[in-house]
Design a protein that fits this description.
The chain is of the alpha+beta class. It folds into two domains: 97 residues, no CATH class; 127 residues, Elongation Factor Tu (Ef-tu), domain 3, CATH 2.40.30.20. The protein is 29% helix and 30% strand. It has a six-stranded antiparallel beta barrel. Strands 1-13-9-10 form a four-stranded antiparallel β-sheet. It has a three-stranded antiparallel β-sheet with strand order 8-12-11, with no helix packed on it. A hairpin with a 2-residue loop joins strand 9 and strand 10. Helix 1 packs across helix 3, helix 2 packs across helix 3 and helix 3 packs antiparallel against helix 4. The longest helix has 20 residues. The protein is elongated and about 75 Å long. The C terminus is likely disordered.
Length: 260
């Protein structure tokens, strides 16, 4: 049977000898504590699984480089004002401008008026009214926005080949090796309990129990048995079951029999 939040709560409470809930809104101190810790513990368990993450949380997507079209340049006195819708840039960052007549290059952003305009540290020449603007830096040339439901990026690839210089920072993947688009393999946030595999649910329940017993007693002694069970029995078994959710070549001894 698929898990519900209520069934998860009740299995946690049963493990600790607490009264079960009739509803997820019951006026019970342990329920209120579970409400407080649940989201953080769920995110922890989603990311702290096998080395490359639980299979059911993995998602692949293609992401275009973080850039936007420029529609106007204007005189800003000693600087130049640039209009580029939803540019996503901040004052103090650097911008790479391409496909213009007068402004190609990397410039420091001296000010950001709003989400559609920013100022660069160069004298106005003319309104080229064209070009692209994208984030850049001294360490990495390009960035790619991580999906809003991303917990952790696992791989950044182009045509199946791993980029060797990428890093995740501030909700973006930064790299100097690709200027168009990349494929991201990432762990996504999943909050719908019916999507949890049974083995993952067991790890979540035990982790919640560990956090709850400490919150109720403020003592670490009551958690030792639960921690040992999680690390020595439940989690290794869950990882083994999760690992089965992919193709495994069956043993074949036809070549042995053919030689007899």
């Amino acid at each position: 049977m698929a898990a519900t939040k209520l069934s998860i709560y009740n299995q946690v409470l049963v493990r600790l000898g607490e009264a079960e809930l009739a509803a997820i809104t019951d006026d019970q101190n342990s329920r209120r504590i579970l409400d407080v810790i649940y989201d953080d513990v769920l995110e922890q368990v989603l990311t702290n699984g096998p080395k490359d993450g639980w299979r059911f949380t993995k998602t692949r997507t293609n992401v275009d480089v973080d850039s936007t079209s420029i529609t106007a340049f204007a005189d800003g006195g000693t600087d130049t004002n640039v209009t580029a819708a939803s540019h996503g840039l901040l004052a103090g960052e650097m911008v790479k401008i391409e496909d213009t007549t007068s402004y190609n290059g990397d410039w420091v952003i001296t000010a950001v008026d709003d989400e559609n305009t920013f100022t660069i540290d160069t004298t106005f020449v003319a309104d080229d009214a064209t070009g692209t603007a994208g984030w850049t830096s001294y360490e990495h040339d390009y960035r790619y926005a991580e999906p809003s439901n991303c917990l952790q990026v696992l791989h950044a690839q182009v045509s199946g080949i791993e980029l060797v210089d990428w890093e995740s920072e501030g909700g973006y993947v930064l790299t100097s090796l690709e200027d168009t688009s990349i494929d991201m393999l990432y762990l996504k946030s999943i909050t719908t309990t019916t999507l949890f595999p049974p083995w993952f649910t067991k790890v979540l329940i035990l982790t919640l129990a560990i956090e709850l017993v400490y919150s109720l007693t403020q003592s670490s002694t009551g958690t030792e048995k639960l921690v040992n069970e999680l690390e020595q029995i439940v989690k290794p078994k869950a990882m083994a079951l999760d690992n089965r959710q992919g193709y495994k070549e069956e043993y074949n001894n036809d070549w042995v029999n053919a030689g007899r």
